[in-house]
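Shift notes (night). Ran Glycosyltransferase involved in cell wall biosynthesis while the centrifuge was going.
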Amino acid sequence: MRKKLVVVQQYLSWKGHYRQYFENLMDWDHYSLYASNDKETYPRSTWIPSSFDADKPLTIWTKIKGRFWDSFRVYKFLGKQDFDVIHFIEFEPLSFLLCSAALLRDKTLVITIHSSDRLHFSSWLNNQLSSFQRWLLETALKKAVKHDAFIVTHYQCHRQRICEIVGPGYEKQVAVIQYPTPLPETLVPRAERDISNPKFLIYGQIREDKGIFEFLSDPATESLNITIAGKVVDTRLHSLPKRRNLTVIDKFLSEEEINELVDSHDYMLLPYPEAYTNGAGTFKDSLAKAMPVVCSNIPIFKEIVDAYGVGIIFSKPSDILPALAIVDEERYGALSKRCLEYAQNFDWKYMRAEYFKIYDQLKESI
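Came back to this:
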């Protein structure tokens, strides 16, 4: 007897929202499969052991082990199973291409794509590897949609780019489910704050692709009161000249530490460059904390800020303070309120419901 649906997460041991995303989609009506260094007590689940340790430093070898090898083992296993629908929460294109003959035989795939463009690096070698990974992704997606795969992404701009990749005629197979915000801890907007000298917070993993070093290298940022909090992977930040109004907290932060920083700052600052291609978990976290955002003018931010009025968009660092000069306490409170409204409308329950609509549609068509 064939099984209807399985939800797959081969990166359960990785830090971030990998686990929450997976657990949010579990249900007694379908199966789950995961790779992890620990076995969990999930219902109707299959465990594939992994030796990846997220607490150890990332090297080329550990990335290969954690990304490709675990994916390949999971995809190879799935190719031998009798599932009608397979949902890949994370998609590893090389593993898919190697196992595609079995995965596409009598199976319908749901593929979540979290980023629509390749990463850009200052290193020539890293750029070559990124370009090759991009080619693999495009090749894999083109092959998948020709076999009726359904693609989910989290932004309209990402959907547009994926539609360009797979070509005309497949638009109905690409859908947008907005990336969820955490459940707000309070429904009370921020109010009565002295925002005459705004304090900006940048938190999360400080990677090269986020362009924070380039942003801070602009002299206009010297007038901004900025705290950077999170593990600094882009070590170029340590070479910046010391400045009075720049604080760097280089470590992984607990939830309590994050909340204390959010309470003591006015805006979440996301100065990511035009070439940035990943999602924006920090952006969504900020909205759930009723904290207005100040974002660079890139599509993933602009489409939400423009539509829901949760902050401001800037094109260059010198635009930030003039744009905020017109934000008084009343307007700041309105921005904060709209952050909470967005978080309530697009939470993890919303995402689960949207995915289940797709699951039901595909299961009924079998």
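The two ends are 14 Å apart (CA to CA). The CA atoms of residues 310 and 338 lie 6 Å apart.
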